[in-house]
Amino acid sequence: MDQRYRIPPLAALNAFAAFARTGGIRRAAAELRVDHAAVSRHMRDLEQMLGITLRDRATGKLTLAGHTYYSQIAPLLEGLARATADIRQQTPHLTITCVHGFAYHWLVPRLAAFRRNHPHIDLLLRPVDANTTFHGNGIETDSHADIFYARDDAPSAALRTLRSVAFARPPVFPVASPACVAAMGGQPARLIDLLHAPLLQEEDDAEWRLWFNAHNVTISHVPSAGRLWQAHITLAAARAGEGIALGNAFLLGDDLETGRLVRIIPTREPLQETPLGSYVLRASDRAWEKQSLSIFRAWLLEQVAIQSVHTPS
């Protein structure tokens, strides 16, 4: 065989592809269900065989050569996987990556019904910490879609090869536990009074700033009762009585109905429920029209429509 066309071991290619998809050695190992040392070894072996550096050791990201190589082999690996699934007559596979709060509080309680109605679709739900993991390296597969929250003040990150639909734009409002409200001496009189209340933040104060700005409240500083990285964790802290968090119907579940949380409503000023962003489903061009994703997309839109009918305005 001509040495120019010698193919690297499939295990090494799979490890490299998993690293490119996930953006990390440990995440690739988790996806492949192997030890992270095995992924590192396969990556080193592949680099040695190719005579090029695929991963920048300083940044942990793909090099330009790594990006180029992956863009060339990804469709081939996907085709190999698809052909193998076809010959085995496997059920269609669909992976949905999704922000944690939406996945846990809204999607998971409904997935059992989806699986009962569509038993031929093998759906894997993968909650993720941030929406940057999807196509973080320009990766495209035809069995992967992503659900993320696009805040209004975030820069557009649309890619030419992605299709998307904004399927929900929920109002955002502050909530707290009854114990927290009692500790504050009751509901605040005005919106500006919230700046003297324990406000729970996510990664930073951007969400609160956007909310105050939407209500025409000028602020120079948002006091923090704690930064907790993600919306669903700030809501967990709010349930524990640690402060006031911003929430929406997709994150609250039955918190308001059960009384675990109550809305913060100033007694002397109207409080307008204002959307600050949208939930978006996105996928590659190849994935968008696949039957499994088309079915899931239609089901998702139907479920959101049903919720909008039953959610009080």
Automatic annotation (TrEMBL):
Residues 8-65 form the HTH lysR-type domain. Keywords: DNA-binding, Transcription, Transcription regulation. GO terms for biological process: DNA-templated transcription. GO terms for molecular function: DNA-binding transcription factor activity; sequence-specific DNA binding. PROSITE patterns: HTH_LYSR. It comes from the Bacteria. Pfam families: HTH_1 (PF00126), LysR_substrate (PF03466). Signal peptide: none annotated. PANTHER family: HTH-TYPE TRANSCRIPTIONAL REGULATOR (PTHR30537), TRANSCRIPTIONAL REGULATOR-RELATED (PTHR30537:SF79). Belongs to the LysR transcriptional regulatory family. This is LysR family transcriptional regulator. It comes from Acetobacter senegalensis. The lineage of its organism: Bacteria, Pseudomonadati, Pseudomonadota, Alphaproteobacteria, Acetobacterales. The gene is lysR.
